[in-house]
Queue: 4 jobs
Job 1
Amino acid sequence: MFKRISLWVGIGLVVCATAALQAEGPLPDHPKDLQYAPLDFKLPPASQFRGVLSNGMVVYVAEDRMLPTFDMTVTIRTGSAVEPPDKVGLASLAGEQMRDGGTKNLTPEELDERVEFLAASLYSEIGRTRGEAGLFCLAKDINEGLGLLIEVLRYPRFDGERLRMAKDRMLQNVKRRNDSTRSISRIEWGFLMDGETHFGNRYPSSNTIKAITREDLFAFHRKYVHPGNMILAVAGDFDRAAMLKKLENAFADWPTGETGPQSFPAPDYDPKPGVYLVHKEDVNQGRVTIGHKAIKRGSPDEFALRVMNGILGAAGFRSRLVAKVRSDEGLAYNTGSRFNQGIYYPGNFQCWFQTKSNSCAYATNLVFDEIKRMRDEKVTQTDLDDVTAYYVESFPQRFQTRLSLMEAYVDDEYTGRDPKYWQSYVDNLNGVTVDEVQRVAKKYLHPDQLVVLAVGDAEAMKIGGHDKAPKLRFDVFGQVKQLPLRDPDTLKR
Amino acid sequence: MEHDSYERRLWIVAVGLLLIVASWPATARGEDRSPAPKGVQPREVTLENGLTILLVERHEQPTVACGLFFDVGGANDPQGKSGIAHLFEHMMFKGSMVIGTSDYKAERSYLDAQDKLRAKMNAEMDKMRLMKRRGGIDDVLDPKQWTPDYAAMKKQYDELVEAERTYIKKDEFSSLYTTNGGARLNAGTMEDATMYFVQLPANKLELFFWMESDRMVNGIMREFYVERDNVREERRLGVESTPTGKYNEAFDALFWQSHPYGVPVIGWASEVESITRDDVRDFYRIYYAPNNARMVLVGDFDSDKAVEMAKRYFGRLPRGIKEPPPVITEEPKPIAERRLHAEAETNPRVRMRYHTTAIGHTDEAALDVLAQLLSGKTGRLYKRLVTTEDAAIGEPRVNNQGRKYAGYFEVNVTVKEDRTPEEVEQFVLEELDKLRDGEITDHELQKVKNQVLATSVRRLRSNLGLMFQLGLYDTWYDWSYINEAPERMLKVTADDVRRVVKDYFDPKTRTVAIYRTKGGAPTEGEDPELAAILEKLSPQQRDRTKAMIKRIRESTDLDRLKPMLQMMEQGASSDQIPEEQKMMFEYVLKVLSARVAELEAADKESD
């Protein structure tokens, strides 16, 4: 009873408040009627920050005086792509142990102590197609911090005990790759798209980890970590000219070596369309990924593809997959799409969601329909305008700090993208038309080539039984193949 | 919307911030509280209806981080309706009588029809729950097990939803923000706060006032049951289908005996599935009122203009229909240690928790310093567990979390697979003992204080980060916590730390979770005979046996091994070993006598 009364009281209040809001004052009835002053935003060009040290090292340096801090990121031309296949894990260990394994002058413990006493942060790591090291410290500690970072980069100790501990940790963690559907799905999707031999799908196993020696780390480091292979991003509370001089001095006597990899090989593999199920015990939700190969970056269709994919699934609640799978049907908390235009070789197009086992086939059908619809129907002008605005209007927010802008420019330099890319970014997006969206959808989305990967309770996913389509099964999307779980260590079946 | 736990504490330091954050001139504004001129000093304005507004101008980037924080969270969920605060947060994105509809009046008739039908469906659902209790069905959500009546009504309901769609402007609320450059649009529900936020281009701040003042009062629970299903999926995603989610939830429930913190913010499955549109409407009228909220703006705007807009848009909103009730349940002092043994697909792990204090308590700073002394690569736990004992991997996570009503101190360590969580637990306890009575050096304390200072500066770098801190601290305590907490930490002495260890780390008050790897992690090069024996043991016995064998094999101390061998031999002949442990016992005995023989032989050689 109380509930009923309070409900009516509540509604009464709502009505009053609405009336009050609308009746008094010049408040617009709808936010569409709000008038905004123009925003004066110009992205400063890369050339304003770029410098070259006398040893040829490229640096991007920006003053940022808001706080008494200092940040530096070092991008290193290397990657696990270039490690020998019988020592997978070497690049990652070398990257991590530059920092963790101490330096010529400091034991790992002494280095840790110094870094933590300064309350700085200092890290190094090597991923698949690049290495990175970085420093954050207070501006008062710039000299000492910079000194520590350079020591880590130039004179790593690769302490034997720290290396053993790191290898032990890796040996333990390789066994845990089948713990979650997230991990299983990520690894399996890579194999389905790019095949098992591509470097992007090489994972350390206990055999390759054990084969890595301290000498391997030294050799890897010697070959790839030197000023000719580094690009710096620096931002903080300093005078730019003085900082350039400081960097010049700091790196001057470090000789450069041979240049690291400029590009990385494409996979030699054609994905096989169909439905792939992987069974995982004790989960009540299936993790589904749907997609196929995409293209490489630098195509004239890059921006049309970005808008097309935004409308399909990448522009938050304004995109169709979120509207359909989540908002209309209540099937998934997390759904969307990505059309990844790879830097060195074609990336892949993927749509995803996670939903209770018996809804997996039904939701997959919704995603297939939306993909087809992108090709078959022209998007509306409103769709196009909203999604273009989604990217264009938030553009000034992309680079919230000077450091993030420097890092974006370093990234362009490292990957060989035109430094004017960001200057024409907004115009390029605004130039996309409704016709172009449909043209690229037809050209780059291929419903007949879709691969579906579903990880979860395989039996329950197969049976389906969503109340709106009780008879729908996975086999309508292609041949269904159940893949056994891989051995977590070797990733062989 | 994403559910943020905000476990990490955010420290802000007063020192040196005069230059950083605009300090407000003491103009004669009646409603302004005059802040002491140091640290982060937002301008603070309170409207007559109780809405608090905190403003910090920073003009480096042309954006404004905007947040609205409500003093409500999972801890306020009524009995039997866990998850309501979080579900409601989702509903706030579903539009209002103005936003998200092309004709509210027309839409309204469908909503009413849905409510009527839903009441009947709920009654039928109660019948199905009864059937489930009696064993007639085993899942009320499985369409194949629904009663014909329920299935028919569900179909009818879906048709009404479909018909309503004609009038729905799909997700217009979110679109209005994102097409105007609103970035990071999201919300989060915690135990003691619900927050809504977006970062806008500097020229579009008015949009925030329009949208937020509208949804604070004109919200309607559109697409309610569909969104409830999404939340149910969110729970499957975050808790039920992860390797440790269910165990972590069980651990919280074990730690908090009576306090609502023991109930998950996302809600228990059976309760989330049965929250109704009526339930959330009542909730809305009490908690989503200006007197229970604060707004925080950080970034590139003019605060005089912002205050004017706040008055225009929010000034006329009414206070809530009644004052929100406080949470009064207190956690009783635990009378016995509690332990959870989990077997999960994860690395072995130990989590140890002690009850500590609410946020802002006089002992909090010393507990925070203690957590720091134990953390990091040079902290006491890493040195002991990783470097000395080689028993853990990665940095142990140590955290003192003072929430609005109560708090805890937690140590969380990933254990090496050839060691046991119990061993690691023992090492942690020994380290705590050393802090109880032993020396804490000036260097250690100074390091913590340096970190307090640096971390604070660092965390002011983003407008969004500062906005979150001000909003959350003001909801839980007072925004001034941002300045006070680090000041208090800087004053903590070694004696303070020793005292809190004595006062709070009583074994009776602790709750421990032991995670073992499901099926046991295979040990490399393991003797097949041992593997067969281990298979028959419980996970706990398995770990203990492995650890014992490892210790025997590594020991060089004949003076300890020999008496042990003697005792075990006596035990073997006494027939007192339980049948199921006999094989294990004999195996250990074999290892032990081999090790003793080996050491004796080595001794002889060296003689």
Note: Residues 338-517 of chain B form a domain with the Cytochrome Bc1 Complex; Chain A, domain 1 fold (CATH 3.30.830.10).
Job 2
Amino acid sequence: MVKKGADFWISIGLLAFCAFAAWRTSLLPSMGTGTQAGPTFFPWLMIGGMALLSAAMLVRSLVAGSTKGEGSEIGARTLLRIGAFLLLMLAYAFSFVYLGYIVSTVAVFILGMLFLGERRVIFFAGIPVVIVLVIYFLFTKFLGVYLP
Amino acid sequence: MDVLQYIIPVFAPEVLWVIALGTLGGIVIGALPGLTATMGVALLIPLTFGMAPILGLNMLIGIYIGGIYGGCISSILVRTPGTPSSAATVLDGYPLAQKGMAGKALGMATIASFVGGLIAAIVLATLAPQLASLALAFGPAEYFALALFGLAIIASLSGDLLKGAIAGMLGVLLSCVGADPISGAARYTFGITGFASGFSFTPALIGLFALSEVFVQIEKMLNERVEKLKISGIWPSRKDLRESTGAMLRGSFIGTIIGIVPGTGSGTASWISYNEARRASKTPEKFGTGHMPGVAATESANNAVCASALIPLLALGIPGDVVTAVLMGGLMIQGLAPGPMLFQERPDIIVGIFAGTFIATVFMFIFGMLGIRLFTKILSVPKNILTISIVVFCFIGSYAINLNVADLYTMIGFGVLGYFMQKFGFSQAALCIALILGPMAESNLRLGLMSANDNLALFFSGPITITFMVLTVLSLLWPLYQNWKARTRERSA
């Protein structure tokens, strides 16, 4: 199903991405590899192709009119929710190495459960610690994988 | 005699145990709505990191086969497909459950999955070595044409050709990050050493298929109450079996053929099989009302894809579907490159995978028939705890492979990308397969040009190259033709 309103903005975003990629590609050094097709040959092919297809999508969204998309439009509330969870993920990635697996994961587990609407105190008492420790022992002792 | 020498180790207790564990885990993952077989394999690849290749790969194959089968459990019991490949099973499975025949519907799904899986496993063991011998003669031009065909078909099957092609090209462009395969020049690394060899494949897959699904679940997170249905009598009657044999066999062959075509998958196979079963039936009006052949058609087809999708992966290095694309990550972390050379260099792995596929299919049948009542309880697991546990697995899995923090950010980045792609109708499968086929297409195109002094005619000569090029053009034109036909029909109506 074509989501016209969203498609218009997505194609603009894709064209901007193509412009950015073209700029970065132009900065790459050309190296002699015994053929005209150097390290930038394939990226240029892809950037050109993507730009053409994005332009076609833009035209399609304009021709089809700018009616509101259906089904899976992302509302502001959802975007906020996803954004907040993304921040939690980034904080987890940052703290994973600095605080170590156990501390950072227990904290993220509790925050995540709260974020996802869990309010039963009994669940917070044991589940995060048990799951985090089981996973820790599974990876470190059983599979020999190092965790910080 | 050689083959026997490679088969015997697969029957070692630890291998059987790991296959059983993988299959059981796959069934649990598949049964849970929102957790797909793709996600299961992506998440559990890191678990196989420290295992011997035959153990690790067969565990992943067990998860794959179990996961695709497990999808039918929630399709039949709660009208929510556990995996996209079981979406068509809802049509007849749920009405059967409403009629009080949930157990028999699950029993039929298990038998059909077993038959489909077994037929495809036989085809895998027979056809893959032949295809691999043929592929030994492939040069850069043939490989480039094959990669191009894979990219074209995945774009054309993604529903919207334009968006599918954009997703594919984006995937190829993202695969260019890191060292150039020919000259070694750094491309788009932005000075970050963690990206010097490109985006790590497994973290990218985990992000694309597991973390993105977490975002989707967060969006949908509702306090869904699962209506528990009573299960009684799991063996379908003789009449049911007689009625469903045709649909089951037809589905098995449809699934096997579709699995071999690079880029297609079990979802496509089950819908085609369902439609064909209805078309061939003397009582098509019964389909959709709770008709056993409907369940048999979809489940035999989607499980047949599991084994047959391994054929192009193992013989040509081209994934047959999105799960085998993820499985390729499992082969790669074991230091194995799928393709014809694997048949020459590691016949033990190839034969081990063939045998493992058979064993996993048998385990799936045993667990399916014995554990139906137990698996229904899985549907009661609190979704929020499950979601956070998946997040933890995403992080450990992405970090454990290279112990590289950059991989965590890669996983998060691909997770966000996957979520938005899913929301706006861009195929994640196209992006994933393009990440694999991109380097193959690029290096073979450039090697071909080097050997032919930049003469493009090389890519339009030779029977295999021309065949793939023609198939590429046809697969791109087909959706356009279908669109045109639909519009003409609409106008004349």
Note: The mean pLDDT of chain B is 85.
Job 3
Amino acid sequence: MAEQTYRVEMKNINKSFGGVKALNDVQLTVKPGEIHALMGENGAGKSTLMKILSGAIQKDSGQVFLDGCEIFVKSPKEANDLGISIIYQEFALVPHLTVAENIFIDRLSEDNKGFISWKKLRGSARQLLDELGFNDIKETEIVSDLSIAYQQVVEIVKSLSRNSKVLVLDEPTALLTNKETRHLFRLLLDLKEKKNVSIIYISHRLEEVFEICDSVTVFKDGTYVDSVDIKDINEQELVTMMIGREMSDYFPERNCKIGEETFRVTDLNNGRMVRNINFGVCKGEVLGISGLVGSGRTETIRAIIGADKKESGKIELYGKELNIKCPRDAFKNKIGFLPEDRKNQGVLLELPIRHNATISCLSRYTGPCGWIYKNNETKDVTELTGKMNLKCSSIEAPVKSLSGGNQQKVSLSKLIASQCDVLIFDEPTRGVDVGAKREIYALINSLAEQGYTIIMVSSEMAEIVGMCDRALVFRNGTIAGELNGSEITEQNIIKYAMGVGENATCN
Amino acid sequence: MQLATDSCAKKTRMTPGQFFLKHNTLIIFFILLIISSLASPSFLTKQNVFNVLRQQAPIVVMALGLLLVLLTGGIDLSAGSIAAVGGMLIAMMVNKVGNTVGSLFLSVIVMLVLGVIIGLIMGVLITKVKMPAFITTLAFMTIGRGAAYMFTSGQPVRLNKELPGALWLINFGSKTSPALGIPWAVIVYAVIIAIFAIVMKYTSFGRLIIASGSNAEAVRLSGVSVNKYITSAYMICSCMAVLGGILITARAAIGTPSAADGYEMDAIAGCVIGGTSLSGGKGKVGLTILGVFTLAMIGNIMNLLSIASYPQQVIKGLIIIGAVILQNLSSKKE
């Protein structure tokens, strides 16, 4: 039978989240002892599929086979018991415990009636580490004292100690230095050859995929595109596969004159993620900021509006330098911000829509002693939510009772009510259905037409291509490229974001 | 406009169970009220009711301060100790300078300012130095209690009746007002309750306190200085604690360093029974007061039925657990 040649086979997998289809009839096959890359843009469904494989979430329909037998995984523990381990970007390690304790965290006292045999625990950990060639990691070391790379190794050792047959790595090198990456690759190749482990490798870095992977599967918008052997494909072809279909035409037309430059950021620095950022934006312009997750987009914005303390840099509005130390200063200086994480940063879920909408501009509705003129407030909020076509039973309803798209509209209302001149949107359409997306695009367009200065950060390349007059592509905390008008294509964005043919373009 | 179409139509009748869960604080309060008045004929007498109302004065004002702190998602364990400090210092001060009624009022104001300053220190430690509220206020609980004993090496301070200021304070604590014979202390806290209720409902201060507790990061990113609101909650809480201490001293005509021991726990329990969430962002002034009196009523009826004090504490604890389980059920049902 054909299935028996595969270590992992996932067939016709479907998964929806609250009506939004995350995976549409996708498949994945991984042979024993191969490193299989899983690629696609942000939101293509890679992580969702891996979560299904590891039991963190349940599929709606479809089949999963392990070594030819159908499996029904209900929880991460069951997946572990079957030999499937997944290593997320945030490790599941206990920082204050030692390496040995972490490796055997679920079996600390297995055959010792509740007492830990420290000698045996450390001995087994030592043995495992030696076997994998990590003589320099001490089993008695506290995990939080290790480098990120070694923490990752501990995580891998932990899963191998359970005799994993399938190892899933989600962007393992995102936080590693070059040297650490080398180290990790050596380990992965060893595992593949000596232990016949199948590795599913999620990464955005093309060069890595070509270096260590044997085959690649590409997803796009929750659908399966193709699977090929790495040796049958080159970088350009892979990029084309990831972009795939032509763009749908749901970006409404914008009709506006771009005015003079209003907002400028000069030499902004903040740690590793924000290095020497320089750019300007004009009145009526929509500037896109693109780049992969972890490229420093959000960090740059947070440094601009004072959500994080910046190390250095100048921020000017209308040629006047602003002193922004906290988000309050930003709003006071007419720079408004829509955070990317709606639930944790954008809205107050328990509070009514009315309270959410006016929180940035409450002083406009207050008289002596902070007395709130509720009638004015209600009138304005009703008008605003009406204009935004926000669907709610009343503006007194708590935000948590709304759908994702409508919650986002509340967050947007708050930004618009703040009456800022510069509007910075970080992922304005994340977690929002297609209908609401279109409305949000139309709203951003009308704001640009009214003469606002707009910066839009987005992981969705189609959005940057469809919406922006100009785009900056971030990579490793710097601006890797600037694209104007018709230059803004997914091809070019990916090129800069992933550093394809970097040597040629850098000069 | 498409507003108010689908969701409005869905409004259905609540089942009795849902109704009970929604208004559980109120319903439990009235059930206890009815049971108590049936269980003991002396419960609903004017004397007993006024007695309970007067006894609860310090707890009520402290609960109001604590409500603000809890709304921001914090906690203040120091309230009882700060009350003891306030109670001791006011007695010492009045005995020293209480020649006139005016100097009494001045002393009270000085004490309240002192409370505000203590709260400011705690607030800064919590918001700027980023110390956990639990630890910060635990430290102040110890410091406050220790200080209260240190002032007089542990001796209580009896108010000197010869002095007009001290006499005024004693009269305030023990006498009743001409209005229906309501005790003065009760009138004072009724006014304070009204102020709190209005501030929390109708002013930006109240709204932003609640918002800060609901999701501090979101509020900060909306351009509001969250730290300012959190710090002011502690300032008000300590100020209310000092006021509580003054009320205790006025009532007893004596400042005791061991006064108000554990009162902060009764105040917190009152808030929680009234549906205040310990994780912040949820709580009402009216329900908090109801919570405080629910607890007070339980204690009072058990006293009237002459239940011994040890089992009383056990029963009180069990009732708190029951109340909180109900709160959880009702918030889940939402």
Note: Strands of chain B lie at 157-158, 254-255.
Job 4
Amino acid sequence: MSSIPVKKHTIIFLISASLVCLVSCVRGEDFTSSPTENFEALWKLLDEKYCFFDYKKAEYGLDWNEVHERYASLVNDSLTNRQLFDVLSAMVNELRDGHTNLIWDYGLSRYTAFYADYPHNFDGELMLKVLGDNYYYSSGIYYVRLPEQIGYMYIGSFSTSFSQRLITEIFRYFEDCSGLIIDVRDNGGGDLTLAQDLTARFMEKKTLVGYISHKTGTAHDAFSKPKPVYIDPDTTLLRWDRPVCVLCNRRSYSATNDFVRNMRLLPQVTIVGDRTGGGSGLPMSTELPNGWSLRYSSAPMYDTDMNHTEFGIDPDVSVNILNTDKQRGIDTIIRIASLLLQGAG
Amino acid sequence: MKKPLFKLFLFLLLMPLCAFAQEKAELSDSSALAADVLQPGRFVRSGATLNLGLITTCFDSYLSPNNYMGLELGFLNENWRRSAGRENLFLQSISDTSVGLAVAGSSSSSFVVDEALSDAWAWRIGRLGPVDFYAGPEWQGRFGMIYNTRNSNNPANVKLGLHIGGMGMAEVRYRIFRIPVRTSYQVDMPLVGAVFSPQYSQSYYEIFTLKHFAGTVHFVSPHNGFSMRHILTTDMTLPHSILRLSMVSDSYQYRTSTNSFALRSLRLGVGFVFNSYVIYPREKAYDYLPY
């Protein structure tokens, strides 16, 4: 092996590069349990990441800087974790957003006024009476053929996955029915894709259903250009083209709000019941320096006219459950939907 | 979501083992066949070590603003061979795989999977006393994932990166109690490359379900994140094997326009080295078979 004189600049370069590495490190926040630091961190995280500030300022005058001033006076480093959680939860609820929650090992903050301040318009006992004894249940879907030859299916969540084969089988079971009721009351959402796949079973062709954008930076108005969202049905699958009523209430939230938004675009669909709960921001998660988790709306989804549906969607036919009906074991909303479908049929 | 993530995890875990097994199949040592077709200068040194160490920083602003720290298990496989035509040119392939668990506070945890594949062309550029120096260009591919156990719609962030950079190595051979020892210290520096990273609050639903890929590939260079890997290895020739001790210090980091990422670790390992010669081309070797 021959000896080659070493090039000193090579060694100098390597040593220099090592030093550069030491001084240019990317780092995150270190753990701290200080109430004031966590308050400031929460306010800043939401200030930089939450997506509905401008919309909510216009809707009800939300001023996030004013919120900071109001709540900062309530926080000091002598607060216990529970006291801090209560104060931070109240601050988070100023956003009036069911998708924005603070999660501690021993509690979860939630905003409920979007449904708690209104009639429930759903009663499980009444629904069971409608289902009777001969209903079927599979993958989270209850379904039965009503005596007036109307198909009825109740989907309580889009978190429980169901197959396209199940939907096909339900459609075949309802073959003799003149209409279909899809009840998504009290459905708090779940998998957006699952809800869109169900919508596709009622579509004839690829359809624009809305737009989505996301935050591109920390400013309140830093958004990407809205991108169109299409639902492209698989035309080899059985399609339901007869009249449909979608039943919703204030607890039809998140992916269910999206489902209602999409279904109302179809000519054979009528939305019946109460206004949906909303929740049109796609939620993401982050953390406070003390390890508490924060879920927040990060990406706004719009309807086809670029309107927000964050505060819900009005039904085509507004119906509340009447107490007189309830006492007789009748679900007014299902009753009205059934009459609408019989009339349409 | 969880099944594909698990498959990816298994794939990344097993990939270097498969590569190592394939490499061994292509090598042969002092067999009669090898003696016939042996080409001097095609020496291959293969070293594999199992590493255990610390994740000193795991930070991905897409998932959390917090620093995570933890433990990781790694597998480092290195092949070093002299080029066919040039006495001072060597080809080095490294597969560095690690899986780990990092935590922040008492209730937040993240699973980390990282695979770094690199090929370097190392020229022996000089000698200073007993120390040989090598340097040359290299490419590096980084694949991996960080899975945050608590996040909802952004539970994981996939790491994909392709970099071009350089390596430098110092190697010294000496004896301890008449045992031949070889120690090398190597630095790898990715200089320019491209990484996949979602935009500030862009969801995977938007990227993959709606296929809005624009803006997810970012240029990286030392101006937005200086990455470096240090590898210190010591090979000791024992009577029937060559023992390798290794220390790997890896710092991989970058800032895109909206997100920041850093993964730093320090691992110690132990393994073995196999010296062999390439029989190439393999098809030609059959011409030398006596039957």
Note: Helices of chain B lie at 2-26, 32-37, 204-209, 282-285.
